[in-house]
Amino acid sequence: MVKKYLPAQILLHWLVLGFVALQYLLHEPISESFEKRLEGVEGATSGLVALHIFGGSLILVLMMVRLLLRLSNELPAYPKENAPLQKLLSQIFHWSFYGLLFLLPLTGAVAWFRLSETAGDLHEALRGILLFMIALHVGAALF
Hints:
Elements: H1 7-25, H2 27-38, H3 47-72, H4 84-114, H5 117-142
Helix pairs in contact: 1-3, 3-4, 4-5
């Protein structure tokens, strides 16, 4: 059993976090642009919107690499003092993060490129869930 994550896994973790933070910072410009596009306003994009789309695409690619590394490498052992329920919750939480980090770029792309209000609403809901999970993750890591 390995003692720690691979350097590539650690790097990908922080890269994804950085791009997720960027996505939250760029939320307002793309949200406003999306609403204008739904109303039929032409030319309702900007460099910040393009950066948000690029960031989402990059997160999707990085998550594919993370998933491949996760499935092809051993994981560090859970601490022996962790209860079985704690281990199970950790696994559920971890895979939920992966699911969200795949679904968010996909729903964003469908919303933007297909001009789907439904996909946009789902994207917004997932965004809130991800923010909540990040807060829980940070809390768990600190305590």
